[in-house]
Amino acid sequence: MSNSRFRAVEAAFHRDVVKAEAPAPITSEYYGCNVFNRKVMRRYLSADTREKIYITIEQGATLDREVAEHVAAGMKRWAQDMGATHYTHWFQPLTGGTAEKHDSFTQPHGKGDAIETFSGSLLCQQESDASSFPNGGLRNTFEARGYTAWDPSSPAFIMGDCLCIPTVFISYTGEALDYKVPLLKSEVAVSNAAQRVLRHFGMGDERVQSLLGWEQEFFLVDSALFAQRPDLILAERTLIGHNSARNQQLDDHYFGSIPGRVLEFLKELEFECYKLSIPIKTRHNEVAPNQFEVAPVYEQSNLANDHNLLLMTVMRDVAERHGFVVLFHEKPFEGVNGSGKHCNWSIGTESGVPLLSPGKTEFDNLRFLTFVANVLKAVYDNNALLKSTVLSATNAHRLGANEAPPAIISTFLGDHVSKAFEDLLETENMVHIERESGYSIGVPRVPELLLDNTDRNRTSPFAFTGNRFEFRAVGSSANCASAISAINTIVAHQLNRFADAVDARVASGEPALKAVIAETCAVYKDAQNICFDGNGYSEEWKQEAAARGLDCETCAPRAQDCLTCPRTLEVYAATGVMSETELRARSEIAWETYSKKIEIEARVLADLTANHVIPLATRYQSILLDNVYKMKAVFPGDEYAELASTDLATIRDLAGHVNRARILVDEMESVVDEVVAIPCQRERAIAFHDRVLGYMNDVRGHVDALEMIMDDQMWPLPKYRELLFIH
Ligand code: ADP
Ligand code: MG
Q1: CATH ID of 186-238+247-578, from 3.30.590.10, 3.30.70.2760, 3.50.50.60, 3.40.30.10
Q2: Is the pTM of this model over 0.90?
């Protein structure tokens, strides 16, 4: 489709399609039209340049400067044809979200003239003056520079009038300051390690990809109501608010029909996503009222993650056009289900052989069991690390509540795979292997039915779901690269250990497949403690998990300690994904972010309580007092005593809550002031957890009680029933 024709389609889309007054354009006609993809490259780059850039994209070869100049020239022409006037290096700082600084193509030239410029060096690298991004001590002021450098494996795209170039963000001394660098390095690590293991299966020449399919949950709130809630505006969650009489107990929202205005929003969201090649596949209502989910078709992890971040940006924009605000916070409403971002993760060869799917032959099944056993072992050995990548100030509200996975990482295999492992263990010694026939291993064929095995344990944080693992502990607001790069890294490390062990056996004369089976059995047996098929919410599991040696820490700042424990340092050093300095910086940033978030919440709560709720509660109290006075004047003694008794009780109740709330808020504020002054980031974050959260709960208890007592018309904020049921 030509650009001008497309613009016409786009205008019509916004006008008619969203309102269901015209049929939608055919997706395939405009899919990816805002992306510098191969189709576009064929029009804007010479064959020679294309060949070189493809090698860079596919094999990670370094791009030479001359080719970069050609690519930049083509990209600029395309961007201008598409109406773009600016460009930006688009990156993922550790604050979360994405960052961009727009530069104009326009360059003053000569006397009063201007030209449009964009060179290879501007495409490939920029110095960022973004010294206010968190760096965990990685940048001293004298070397406060950071660099952004092009990641050619993720295509450039256009948003609005800006050409966006996906980049990594590193310090002057080369340390990663973002989420992308570790993810890219972890992809290489897991590929190399998986190839080593695959060589024992007669494969391993091809690279192995880590694949990610995320499921993004979110809430939509009417923008007018949102604007009246300072807590939503400043903290993205309600810090006070009594439960609505009805919330999700009817279970009528989940998979129900999508409300009209929401559907219009989703249609436009999909349209915008398809323009950017974000392969959105499903959309549905979630468990809580006004909660929804969209999920794409899975992609190679780095691209999938870029697409998730882009989706979050696009979603905010589109929602605004429909009078909504999107909440990505993990727990915007107390007592109502929170939002997660399930990360479906697997590995497969570049040509598409899935390594976590049972195969057609027993030989393929052995390969499958080998990879699954190693994933289990990696998760077992590093369960605390995995949790640390997802346990944040915001996600802590969700993990451990009886709706999301518990804050203990375990895996669930399901009956079929567990049985296959038992059979493998049982027959280990009797196995005779002939690679050609591939049927005599003695492992019973895993039934094809497995793929449709719906026997899924919804309470499991790391569940095997037929051809992948689903990491359900990731929070909806998170950059999932944090979790996915950790999974890739620990699996890479474990696969290397496995390959070392098999190599050693083979070197001492053992047949390769026998060695693989023996090691697979050993690894599986070692990892037994991570497998749990029961109810993850139960008290017994918490006790049993502790007895099994699994990490049971629920305090987010303390959970970060394992980022720098000897095991983690070893795993990251051996795989080359992150250095000790980088890991230390990450834990510092996690503590810093935690403290900042809780400080903001505590201060907003104090303001809401002292300046919004208490003044009105006091006013309501005096209205009641006034009434009581007048009753006393009008009614004779006995009658007055009887008639005024409920008002008097309410006044006592009100005054009690107002007093307690006021005292607690004062105490909380002075504790926050003390905690903020603690110089050590770790100690400060822990103090926020141990000393401030309790106050916040107590204050909220009194405020929520006041909400139930006070005249509805006097309540200063939109209530849960409005926030959750108006759409
Ligand atoms: P459910 O809600 O049943 O978990 P969804 O359809 O909402 O499933 O999401 C499943 C996600 O998992 C999708 O993004 C899908 O593309 C992805 N997925 C499917 N197979 C794989 C795989 N082998 N590796 C990674 N992701 C996968
Ligand atoms: Mg789903």
Answers
A1: 3.30.590.10
A2: yes
